[in-house]
Write a structure and sequence with these properties.
Elements lengths: L1 H4 L7 E4 L2 E4 L4 H14 L5 H6 L5 H9 L3 E2 L16 E5 L5 E7 L4 E5 L14 E5 L5 E3 L2 E3 L5 E7 L1 H11 L4
Antiparallel strand pairs: 1-2, 3-10, 4-5, 4-10, 5-6, 6-7, 8-9, 9-10
Helix pairs in contact: 2-5
């Protein structure tokens, strides 16, 4: 189950020309990491992370968001609409992905780089969890993005996200 994969990711390292570097993980990369792990039952290596389609995670999450269901403030309380394993994607008004995370149970969201997306604090390039109630709703169907502008919160069930991932992700 996808929601069971959502947790802090072990440090990814890649060696290129004899030099080993640690990779910083951002929100879209983390969501794709967990999707990869669920889709292929094996976490991606640092080289897969660096040389596969992980460099195009923003385009991938934007495509996924455009397949999603727009949420309203009360939807997160309704387990018929949102359940564990849903991909949540914060978008601008043009539906371009700005932040992504995954519901890990019926009240919490897990993800990376979540500072300023929720009313509770997050840490840059680190894993954090937030309660559904921490989403910063401006009005029905509109959320506050990290830069203070307005946008949308789109939801994609894990089975739909995994199908889209398998069809669009190209390992190196």
């Amino acid at each position: 189950m996808l929601e069971e994969r959502v947790s802090a990711i072990d440090q990814l390292q890649v060696t290129d020309k004899g030099i080993t570097v640690s990779l910083s993980i951002q929100c879209h990369q983390a969501v794709c990491y967990w999707l990869y792990h669920e889709a292929f039952n094996n976490p991606p290596s640092g080289n897969t992370f660096l040389h596969g389609s992980f460099s195009q995670t923003n385009q991938f999450l934007t495509g996924l968001a455009r397949m999603g269901k727009p949420l309203h403030a009360g939807d997160l309380k309704n387990s018929y609409i949102i359940s564990k394993g849903h991909i949540l994607i914060f978008t601008d008004k043009e539906l371009n992905a700005k932040h992504s995370c995954i519901t890990i149970d019926n009240s919490r969201i897990g993800g990376y780089n979540q500072q300023s997306w929720f009313s509770s604090p997050g840490t840059p390039s680190e894993y954090s969890e937030h309660e559904y109630q921490d989403v910063k709703w401006k009005k029905k169907g509109v959320v506050e993005l990290s830069n203070g502008s307005e946008g949308f919160l789109m939801a994609v069930p894990s089975n739909q996200a995994l199908l889209f991932f398998r069809g669009n992700f190209k390992p190196n």
